Amino acid sequence: MEYAIAVIDIGMTNKKVAVYDGDLKQVHSVYRNFPPKTEDGLQTHDLEAMEEWFLEELAEAAKAYPVKAIAVTTHGATMVFTGKDGKPVLPCVYYTYEPGDAFHDEFYARFGAPEKLQAVTGTPYLKAMINSAKGVYFTLNRYPERFKNAVHLHTYPQYWGSRLTGKTGIEGTYMGCHSYLWDQQKSRLSSVAEELGVAGLLPGRLNNSWDIMGTITEETAARTGLGRDTIVTLGIHDSNSSLLPHFAKKGETGFLLNSTGTWCVTMNPVREYGFAPEELGKVVFFNISAFGKPVKTAIFLGGQEFDIWSKILMKIHGRNDFPPYNEELYRAVLAEKKIFLLPEITPGTGQFPASQAGVVEDGKKYPFADLSADPAPPCFGSYEKAFAVLRISLVMQSLTAFERAGLRDGFEIYTEGGFRQNEAYNALVSAALPGNRVFLTDIAEATALGAAMTAKMALTGKGLSDLAEDFDVEYREVPKAALPELGAYRNQWLKFA
């Protein structure tokens, strides 16, 4: 093996260190979950424990593989204030923390109305602190004295790069990820960053994800056994990283990536930035791709909703299996148009922020919050039917996300993540879109692979398209069934949602 690439892949739940060979084949991976560290009653990321583990695993990798580069990819909406020694000076609070409506009202009163900020920064109103600027605003107000010691504000992938190299930098995929901190119309730090008083703590120029942040420090080399010439790239936001294998294989436009997991993220690489008037105020936004191009995006917590509802149904029936797809049953549910499972269990996180989670059956509403007190919906008496209604709801939400992300006839749709295994979901999505071919990919860990690709680009000087022959992707097309009942059912479902 001529060289190897280490990838640090940081999800909200699992953290991973993986190793790829020069042919972009994953040869090693190890996972760990870090529970939140509680500080002042807040859930915060245990950065110190995570760093110790990353260094330990890099040391193990260095013993077995000739690691010459490290790439970091992380979840969004997380930033870290550091002091002169490069260590955090304020807690890194979980973006799931909800500070309350008064906080959100105060934020927009100070920095601008939600729709105005959305038009300029590409960022929609999201609850909790899923907007990075809200996390910054909350933290500096909560800890004003500690904020005085801040020398740098790091976006999350670049924080880890700075710990490894002692250098700083920012790149587009993270700054452009629903942060409010980047003006996408003027390609510079936004008025929000300036009003927050943190513009001076952020580098003003965007780099590429594959640019080299630096080589590892003497301390990192001593802790890991890696050579001092080991490079660390700028890093990349996880959703944008998962686009890179498809960019290499399919080009930069003409498809939607349907990335499914806790968050279902629909991404449409487009040529121009801009919202239609009716899109403002909706949970539709623009990421920035690794190539600095706009990526129209729509999200919802599909995986979370599926998990929560599934556990309820399993508890009711004392089962733990997932019923197989029965087209006849689904066709009957769609044709009857009497049972509808509605979002959003976590309000304000998806495409239907005004919807109240629950079930409507024969015109009667069974709110999610009251299911433990009231009789369950009659449809819950059938395990198979209840799961059918749940899966249909996920399809309804996905179709709206596709439309808001700019789906057009002729676009291909690539589904990745957990829903690839959901036969009913995929069959219904394909049937609902006669003008689009729907494919399931076999990329098990697209985020880590995309990050490894950036490191290979840095090591070799190759462009992304030059890497297309280095790895294989299977695009397995989902057959199209005739389900004409879908359209009328969706029209009725939308009236309730």
Task: Quickly list its features.
Nucleotidyltransferase, domain 5, 2 domains, 7-stranded mixed β-sheet, alpha/beta, 23% strand, 497 residues
Description:
- By secondary structure, the protein is α/β, with parallel strands linked by helices.
- Helix 12 packs antiparallel against helix 14 (383-404) and helix 14 (383-404) crosses helix 15 (423-432).
- The chain starts with a strand and ends with a helix.
- It is built from 17 helices and 25 strands.
- The longest helix has 22 residues, at 383-404.
- Strands 1, 2, 3, 6, 13, 14 and 15 form a seven-stranded mixed sheet that branches. Strands 18-19-17-16-23-24-25 form a seven-stranded mixed sheet. It has a three-stranded antiparallel sheet with strand order 20-21-22.
- The radius of gyration is 23 Å and the shape is globular.
- The model has no long low-confidence stretch (mean pLDDT 95).
- It has two domains: 4-238, ATPase, nucleotide binding domain (Nucleotidyltransferase, domain 5), CATH 3.30.420.40; 242-434 and 480-497, 2-Layer Sandwich (Nucleotidyltransferase, domain 5).
- Strand 2 and strand 3 (26-33) form a beta hairpin.
Q: What is the CATH H-level superfamily of the largest domain?
A: ATPase, nucleotide binding domain
For the CA atoms, what is the radius of gyration? Answer: 23 Å
Number of domains: 2
User: How many strands in all?
Assistant: 25
Low-confidence stretches: none
Q: What is the global morphology? A: globular
From the 3D coordinates, which CATH architecture of the largest domain would you assign? Answer: 2-Layer Sandwich
- Could you tell me the strand content as a percent range? 15-25%
Here the CATH topology of the largest domain equals Nucleotidyltransferase, domain 5
Structural class per helix/strand content?
Answer: alpha/beta
CATH class designation of the largest domain = Alpha Beta
**Mean pLDDT value:** 95
User: Sheet with the most strands?
Assistant: 7 strands, mixed
Number of helices: 17
Oligomer: single chain
Q: Give the N-to-C terminal Cα separation.
A: 55 Å
Helix content: 25-40%
